[in-house]
Amino acid sequence: MQHFPRLELPGRMSFRFGQHLIKPSVVFLKTELSFALVNRKPVVPGHVLVCPLRPVERFRDLNPSEVADLFQMAQRVGNVVEKHFQGTSLTFSIQDGPESGQTVKHVHVHILPRKIGDFSRNDSIYDELQKHDKVGEDSPAMWRSEDEMAAEAAELRAYFQ
Ligand code: AMW
Questions:
Q1: Which helix (H) or strand (E) holds 50?
Q2: Does ligand 1 lie within 6 Å of residue 118's CB atom?
Q3: What are phi and psi of 143, to 5 degrees?
Q4: Pocket test for ligand 1, best of 133, 144, 147 (most atoms within 8 A of CB)
Q5: How many whole angstroms from 2 Cα to the centroid of ligand 1?
Q6: Which of the listed residues 27, 49, 144 should we mutate to test ligand 1's pocket, taking the one with most ligand atoms within 8 A of CB?
Q7: Cα–Cα nearest to 53, from 62, 44, 40
Q8: Whole-model pTM above 0.85?
Q9: Which of 12, 35, 43, 77 sits at a 20 to 30 Å CA gap from 24?
């Protein structure tokens, strides 16, 4: 029998994501070791993030239980965002360290629903991921509103209830 980690829904506590404090309204899934949140500046519709609860910087800093929990969450969240955003494929990506494009010093898996023609050159998604939140490319004016993010999180949360 396949084992899945216990699924929990976010409570009232805020979540730490590196230097950011994340409101529970934008978190749509939580387990004992991981959580999933919607993105304030998605590269494609449905671009979400899955993170360990423990705020460690590098993938190598996770213990085996955290890796297992994080990837099982990534698998389940991937299925949901692909369906919800009418994708036909997924890109999973971890920018692990500053030279790979990581800006938030807290491990996170990017999950991006993909569909035919979304980029004229398919792997351009990696260029976009690398630069979308860089200093100079990013500013608060480009972020989605809290209401929009909370509404998306509520839609995604419904799949896990
Ligand atoms: W990294 O460049 O560190 O691999 O990715 C950081 C991601 O986190 C980016 O997609 C960015 O848009 C997103 N992000 C940063 N801060 C927040 C926040 N407060 N709420 C939601 N998403 C965020």
A1: strand 48-52
A2: no
A3: -80, 150
A4: 133
A5: 32
A6: 49
A7: 62
A8: yes
A9: 43
